[in-house]
Write a structure and sequence with these properties.
The protein has four helices and six strands, in the order αααββββββα. By secondary structure, it is an alpha+beta fold. Strand 2 and strand 3 form a beta hairpin. The longest helix has 29 residues. The relative contact order is 0.09.
């Protein structure tokens, strides 16, 4: 296998070729302006390369060596396994990745003596949206959408849209006021979580 020439070897070969071209121009009395242009261009390129080599590739470290902290709200919502850490009514939760890239999320509820659970299939449309559809739980139907809108100055507007109907029967009637109270507090709960992690 042929050895690849180094940048220094390539530069030397080019300069030798340029010198031969200059001598050829002199011997044939052709216009030397093209030669002078190429010579000056090569000198300018080398000067620029030398200047770039002296620059700091990580200039931000001159201000601070700490890793920057960014709030990524869609990831806070996506991390279902972390919910018991900051949702007081959620004693347990789990996320199971599916082969199509979606996630099956199960949330347990324990609130004012009422215990239940529900499972949704979540599709994460990075970075702007997470869509939820019902898999199992005390609902006749349930669908929802988290929406994340990036704003100036590294801020973000988070909204949650839910549509649901409870199942007919005692469990549906029992869980209805509990779930409505929980749903109304979700945005504030995630906002406090973000502040505790990134403030």
């Amino acid at each position: 296998m042929a050895k690849r020439a180094s940048s220094e070897e390539l530069k030397q070969a080019f300069e030798e070729h340029l010198e031969l071209h200059r001598l050829d121009c002199l011997s044939s009395h052709r216009n030397l302006e093209a030669y002078e242009f190429v010579r000056r261009f090569l000198a300018d390129v080398q000067a620029a390369a030398d200047s770039i080599a002296t620059l700091n590739p990580r200039p931000g470290l001159e201000v601070s060596s700490e890793d920057p902290k960014y709030v990524v709200p869609d990831l806070l919502v996506e991390r279902v396994d972390d919910y018991p850490e900051f949702l007081p009514w959620c004693p347990a939760s789990r996320a199971r990745p599916l082969s199509d890239g979606s996630v099956e999320a199960t949330i347990e509820i324990a609130f004012h003596g009422v215990r239940s659970r529900f499972t949704t299939r979540n599709v994460h449309l990075v970075p702007s949206e997470i869509r939820m559809t019902l898999v199992d739980g005390p609902f006749r139907s349930l669908s929802g959408r988290w929406h994340f809108l990036e704003l100036p100055e590294q801020s973000c507007k988070v909204s949650l849209h839910l549509q649901y109907q409870f199942a007919v029967g005692p469990l549906g009637r029992l869980i209805a006021p509990v779930f409505e109270s929980i749903a109304g507090s979700l945005i504030d709960a995630f906002a406090r979580r973000a502040e505790s992690l990134y403030a």
